[in-house]
Write a structure and sequence with these properties.
- The protein is α/β, with parallel strands linked by helices and about 280 residues long.
- It has one domain (about 1-260).
- About 45% of the residues lie in helices and about 20% in strands.
- It is built from twelve helices and nine strands.
- It has a seven-stranded mixed beta sheet, sandwiched between helices. It has a two-stranded antiparallel sheet with strand order 6-7.
- The protein starts with a helix and ends in a 24-residue tail after the last helix.
- The model has no long low-confidence stretch (mean pLDDT about 95).
């Protein structure tokens, strides 16, 4: 039944899905005190206290959920065609032409699903993912994300090994760098002024000079008109700056380009079991 409903929703116009998603976002905000608290605390910590940004963030969180059927169950070519403009693509393609492995860091900003699906129309890409806690959603997620040229790998030891193998072959790899890692897979690093348990693997790979590292996100266009993908070359680290803080600082700059589309309600500052916070 869930697959049938998702496929049926995929046929609806993106403008309708985004309009319905805005309503869904407000419903979740109203029904979940925990989500509401996280969203308000995270926005305030980043310096966004005005109601306008908060209202937009609530609506975009719902749009993120409502657009999934279209992204997962429309033909791959139709999904890629939703991308109306791409900024920075030439630099990424030039790096690939030189044989440099591409590392894409895509935070929970805008439509992060569209980035890998668009990239896969141009090159093979390996993406690490964490299976959802909701059991029935896992096969739908795999079916929707595993398109031609997209290889989905779990965030375990075997997946990490495959990531290194893909990079060694000169292929592209994608990460969600602001996803809270499991115990032993991260370190406590500042993110928007607060200590956040941060993935170290992506940061260490980004440090390697042979990798071409880009920050990427898909901005939702108004009225369900589609998406605009932005690619930003990872800027140089500050002198003596740790790798994980380097990535977090770059993500902060990226998110400030489009703060209303960041997933502020995500519990970015949670503490995984046995991961001791040095504070």
């Amino acid at each position: 039944m869930s697959r049938f409903l998702m496929r049926a929703a995929a046929r609806l116009p993106l403008a309708f899905l985004h309009a319905a998603g805005a309503i869904l976002g407000w419903a979740i905000y109203g029904l979940s005190p925990t989500y509401r608290r996280h969203l308000r605390e995270n926005l305030a910590a980043a310096g966004y206290r005005e109601a306008r940004t908060r209202r937009a963030a609530i609506a975009h969180a719902g749009k993120m959920l409502a657009e999934l059927p279209a992204l997962w169950f429309r033909p791959h070519a139709e999904v890629a065609a939703l991308v109306r403009e791409v900024e920075g693509e030439a630099e990424a393609l030039a790096a690939r032409a030189r044989g440099e492995p591409l590392l894409f860091l895509t935070p929970h900003l805008g439509c992060f699903e569209i980035a890998s699906l668009y990239a896969a129309r141009r090159m093979p890409i390996t993406v690490l993912y964490r299976p959802p806690k909701i059991a029935w959603l896992a096969p739908l997620m795999r079916e929707g994300r595993e398109r031609e040229n997209v290889r989905l790998l779990p965030t375990d030891l075997s997946g990490v090994r495959e990531v290194f193998a893909a990079l060694k072959r000169g292929e592209a790899v994608g990460f969600l760098p602001d996803q809270v890692p499991g115990e032993g897979e991260g370190e406590w690093v500042e993110f928007f002024g607060r200590s956040a348990y941060t993935m170290t693997l992506a940061a260490k790979l980004a440090e390697r000079p042979e990798h071409a590292c880009f920050l990427a996100y898909g901005r939702r266009l108004a009225g369900g008109a589609g998406y605009a993908i932005a690619l930003r070359r990872l800027p140089p680290a500050l002198p003596g700056e740790p790798a994980a803080r380097h990535v977090n600082r770059a993500l902060e700059v990226l998110i400030r380009e489009c703060p209303e589309q960041y997933l502020w309600g995500y519990n970015r500052y949670k503490r995984p079991s046995n991961a001791k916070d040095p504070r």
